[in-house]
């Protein structure tokens, strides 16, 4: 039965979990980008591949020479798409359910993990989807209280409320999830930002 692990992967600025500004990311964090690339590209089984699922606006904002994201099956969601595969092997789907159906039909056991890579609308819908079992959240803090970071897009994730169904995993569980060839540093500092990689899963 085709039941790949489906994980959201996102970097957000605490405490309000901001993720964007004017259609782009409010920061450029080199090591965080490498983590995103390594986690979404690596498979424990070398004969398999991962898939990345994104919203149409996120796809549109990738410069054409950099898309599709390499070494991963790219899936783009739009309510006006027909369910099809484009000439550069990108899966077009009009729902997460139909995208999983296409992944099964086209790749079946070849797909190891499915990563939801954004953007805001997709995140805020899929955090509540029963098929999503894991959340890889990079928690970012601004260490410069004299500098305001412009943001206008936020996650609406029920993580820190008392009744939350999401629970933060330990660092060793995160290490196990991403595999040993990815180094998980604590308190990474880049410019005015300090960030930590975290894994959450559903209770
Ligand atoms: N901090 C981070 O880690 C990340 C931040 N971002 C940020 O997110 C923002 C972009 O997010 P946003 O503008 O919300 O755009 P999205 O990338 O979430 O795309 C939204 C589009 O996806 C399609 N869509 C949404 N839900 C569904 C559904 N259930 N079924 C089918 N199609 C669906 C629609 O396409 P259509 O209109 O064609 O129907 C919708 O307009 C940017 O600021 C970006 O920088 C993005 C990724 C990572
Ligand atoms: C514009 O296209 C894209 C925009 C954002 C995107 O996702 C990311 C880009 C860079 C770093 C990222 N880091 C984390 N933890 N999660 C993401 N989803 C990231 C992927 C594509």
Description:
This protein has 203 residues and is an alpha/beta fold. It has helices at residues 30-41, 56-60, 96-107, 120-126, 171-178; strands spanning 5-13, 18-20, 49-55, 72-77, 84-85, 91-93, 111-118, 134-142, 153-154, 166-168, 188-190, 193-202. Strands 1, 3, 4, 5, 6, 7, 8, 10, 11 and 12 form a 10-stranded mixed beta sheet that branches. A two-stranded antiparallel ribbon has the order 2-9. Bound molecules: NADPH dihydro-nicotinamide-adenine-dinucleotide phosphate and 5-(4-methoxyphenoxy)-2,4-quinazolinediamine (MQ1). 5-(4-methoxyphenoxy)-2,4-quinazolinediamine is lined by residues 9-11, 32-33, 36, 58, 61-62, 117-118, 138. NADPH dihydro-nicotinamide-adenine-dinucleotide phosphate binds at residues 10-11, 19-20, 23-25, 54-58, 77-80, 94-95, 117-122, 125, 153.
Task: Give a brief rundown of this model.
By secondary structure, this protein is α/β, with parallel strands linked by helices. Helices cover 22% and strands 32% of the residues.
Topology diagram in text:
Layout: E1 5-13, E2 18-20, H1 30-41, E3 49-55, H2 56-60, E4 72-77, E5 84-85, E6 91-93, H3 96-107, E7 111-118, H4 120-126, E8 134-142, E9 153-154, E10 166-168, H5 171-178, E11 188-190, E12 193-202
Parallel strand pairs: 1-7, 1-8, 3-4, 3-7, 4-6
Antiparallel strand pairs: 2-9, 5-6, 8-12, 10-12, 11-12
Bound molecules: NADPH dihydro-nicotinamide-adenine-dinucleotide phosphate and 5-(4-methoxyphenoxy)-2,4-quinazolinediamine (MQ1).
């Amino acid at each position: 039965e085709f039941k790949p692990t489906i994980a959201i992967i996102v970097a957000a600025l605490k405490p309000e979990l901001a993720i964007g500004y004017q259609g782009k990311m409010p920061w450029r964090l080199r090591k965080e980008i490498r983590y995103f690339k390594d986690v979404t590209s690596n498979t424990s089984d070398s004969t398999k591949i991962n898939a990345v699922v994104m919203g149409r606006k996120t796809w549109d904002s990738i410069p054409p020479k950099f898309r599709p994201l390499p070494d991963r099956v790219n899936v783009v969601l739009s309510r006006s798409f027909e369910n099809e595969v484009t000439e550069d092997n990108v899966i077009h789907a009009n729902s997460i359910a139909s995208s999983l159906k296409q992944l099964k039909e086209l790749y079946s056991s070849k797909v190891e993990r499915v990563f939801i890579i954004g953007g805001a609308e997709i995140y805020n819908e899929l955090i509540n989807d029963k098929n999503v079992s894991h959340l890889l959240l990079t928690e970012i803090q601004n260490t410069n209280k004299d500098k305001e970071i412009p943001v206008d897009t936020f996650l609406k994730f029920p993580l820190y409320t008392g009744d939350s169904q999401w629970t933060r995993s330990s660092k060793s569980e995160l290490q196990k999830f991403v595999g040993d060839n990815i180094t998980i540093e604590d308190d990474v500092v880049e410019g005015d930002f300090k960030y930590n990689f975290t894994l959450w899963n559903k209770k």
